């Protein structure tokens, strides 16, 4: 009998103890703790995380006081791993499969999942506390049994996690784990926004506000769609080089334009405004500036940034009447189970660039240093490898030496 099958029989119905980085106080360093991960229930999958990456959304919620998230909690949502065990009624993945987690479910049955007009699953809505079907958590402190809250139904800052089957995407072998996890959120969001939400046409003009991972992925997606002019806007001059490698044709640093506003500069460069503007920061003032940078008559502004406040976005009504529009998007309009495998194949076919986004790689225990890099704007994506995962490659569950099953 294969070792993986033996592992499943030994642990599938039992809790597993492993290490997790727990957020106990908003904005304070995460604490490495031994936690207990319950076995998967019906429609759930327990995954051994190979590597996880840090997203600005993690930083936003790490800083956020109150609920969500509740503390203590295990953050993280961009990850690649291997299925360790499955609960009842799970048929689309099996033990040993390589999967990526996604914060957005695709149940396949609700009106939104069966429609081409939406990717927001109404059967298992995003953002609910706990597991999506029953609101409970699968994590607890090993020493005390105190529950630990999960995050976006994923919680990838742990060696093992439990995820609803609607929030895992099976990938064919060949995509390295450190590249696969980028498809969990940021890169997919940016490319999807260009392809599906904006549906950028060949010859279009584009302005991208914020050249983090999402903004750079937007630029790449717009280039692939044939946009003629792609203007990147960022306060960090170091983003110019990588931006141009991924599709940016022009770069604006707001600190270098004197008394002019960014929208005035964009209008001068495009002869009236960009056809498409993308806000990738999460600032309501930048959202308004992006809108003002769009062309009268048909300009479309796509909001992708996650704001950490409740300030409203202010748009003059007469500008809406003149044909401009604003649309928001989660996960770039992509349906995870349908579209993520397509992006993975495009990476293998060298049509989608992922390597440029990985600027740092560290061990899981260095997670607080990785947070600091992201907060300081010194990295795009930092990959955190679980113990032994990088050395062993995309290993099966039988190599999970960091965990121990509870008898």
Could you list some keywords that capture this structure?
single chain, about 400 residues, alpha/beta, six-stranded parallel sheet, 13 helices, 18 strands, about 20% strand, globular, disordered C terminus, zinc, alcohol dehydrogenase (NAD+) activity, S-(hydroxymethyl)glutathione dehydrogenase [NAD(P)+] activity, NAD
How would you characterize this protein structure?
With 407 residues, the protein is of the alpha/beta class. It has helices spanning 3-11, 56-63, 111-114, 177-180, 186-197, 213-224, 239-246, 262-270, 284-292, 317-321, 336-348, 367-375, 389-392; strands at residues 16-22, 31-37, 44-53, 78-86, 98-101, 139-141, 147-148, 160-164, 168-170, 205-209, 229-233, 250-252, 276-279, 300-303, 325-328, 358-363, 381-385, 404-405. Strands 3, 4, 5, 8, 9, 16 and 17 form a 7-stranded mixed beta sheet that branches. Strands 12-11-10-13-14-15 form a 6-stranded parallel beta sheet, sandwiched between helices. The protein has a 5-stranded antiparallel beta sheet with strand order 7-6-2-1-18, with no helix packed on it. Residues 1-9 and 394-407 have low confidence and may be disordered.
